[in-house]
Amino acid sequence: MTGKKKQGIEFRYYEIPHGEHLLALTGDNPNQEYAAESPLPKLYFHNLLEVGYCSWGEGIIAFETAEAPYKAGTLAIIPPNCPHFIHDSCPSGSRWEYLYISPQELLRGFYPDNPLFIKKITEQLKKEQCFFCGGHNKLFALVRMILDECPGSISGGFCLRF
Q1: Is the predicted pLDDT of residue 143 greater than 80, yes or no?
Q2: Which pLDDT belongs to residue 19?
Q3: Angle, CA 138 vertex, CA 50 and CA 77 arms, to 5°
Q4: Distance of CA 120 to the CA centre of its chain
Q5: pLDDT-based confidence at 151, cuts 50/70/90?
Q6: Judging by beta carbons within 10 Å of its beta carbon (0-12, 13-18, 19+), is residue 35 exposed, middle or buried?
Q7: What's this model's pTM, rounded to 2 decimal places?
Q8: Section 33-58 average pLDDT
Q9: C-alpha–C-alpha distance, residues 55 and 96, integer Å
Q10: CA-based nearest residue to 33, from 70, 87, 99, 100
Q11: What is the mean predicted confidence (pLDDT) over 13-24?
């Protein structure tokens, strides 16, 4: 036995209320330190596609096999059931805002008669994580507009109707 501690993993369940297309966590709730004090950050995963936008702070976002630095302005797209963690490099933490989306439900609204296409797209989404730190101005603007349309934070988040 090597004496190394096993890293824990946590499941985070998010529910999109009936009739809504996404769950947005904005305001002060997402403003937290992510494992800045811990030498062994805990991996976590969630049931929905996560679109995270870092508005301030810096550190790393890590997966089981890769990691990437983040800073203010980073956009991270993380598929459902993908273990990851955020580790701040500054003691004041970082501020992230999140959109949680069910790709299957969203696509079903656009392609109700094409379940094979929906399956193909959702399988592709599961294959890798995406990080954007610049150069994708239209995508950044779209995510920022959606987040800006969401009201301030209340425990449990908010939903946005299209």
Answers
A1: yes
A2: 78
A3: 15
A4: 21
A5: low
A6: middle
A7: 0.80
A8: 77
A9: 6
A10: 87
A11: 85
Angle at 21 between CA 17 and CA 24, to 5 degrees: 75
**3-class SS at 152?**
coil
Helix then strand then coil, in percent of the chain rounded to 5, is 20, 35, 45
Average pLDDT of 54-79?
89
Whether residue 139 is predicted with pLDDT greater than 70 in this model: the reply is yes
Identify the three-state secondary structure at position 121. helix
Tokens of 33: 């330190």
Which residue from 46, 32, 71, 28 is spatially nearest to 157, judged by alpha carbons? 28
Query: Which residues neighbour 1 within 8 Å (Cβ) at sequence distance 6 or greater?
Result: none
User: What stretches of 5-136 show up as alpha helix (H) in DSSP?
Assistant: 103-110, 115-125
Beta carbons of 123 and 69 less than 8 angstroms apart: no
Q: How far apart are CA 7 and CA 85, in angstroms?
A: 11
| Mean pLDDT in residue range 103-129 | 89
